Predict the 3D structure of the following.
Amino acid sequence: MKEISLDVVEEEETSTPKKSISTKEEETYLTVLRTSMFFDGDGFTVYDCTGDVVFRVESYGPCTGDSSQIVLMDASGHCLLTVRRKRVSLHQRWDGFVGDRIEGQKPIFSVRRSSMIGRSSTTVEFYGDSEEEYQIEGSFGHRDCRILNGDKVVVGEIKRKLDISTEMIVGKEAFALSLKPGFDAAFAMGLVVVLDQIDAEDYDPNDGGDGGAGAGAGSAADADADESTSRIQ
């Protein structure tokens, strides 16, 4: 499998230095935890398998202004990625940029719904030395997704989180993100942020729970997630 790395060199006229996000040579296992149980899309904290914070997505809820542009940061608060929704798009298209996006900067990947009809898969185009295309299949609302490369090989998965102490599945506000060697974790979290936004827009309260990322706040599932926070990191 070809390694995906978000190493890019911006064009000279932008005067932006080279930015790098490294990949790992072994499988990566992350725990993604929503930082608010009360608002759709209000941020995430991401932990590695040792319990250390590796990524943060903060404060893009209803009181922060423009939610069409969201920033992924490292544990120290440095901007790694910006994802931005295209204002005119029939397929809920989002573009991803390295670092803190500036005017005129070219995206390094884009994410769009494969179809405007029903709950279709999601297509990801990565613009590197050679273009790569991925498909995201499954239900993000149910926290059951797979990222497939062009050869239909699974390179990443989103799954519900198991509380080891009780052997019970916790609420949807905490979930596992596992990645194959060479697949960039920051890139994967950028995809998670976009999926969360698309899912929130698709939310139907009569759809049996396969909906918005913040659906069911205050429910028993959310309570489970809240109570289990200290055990799943």
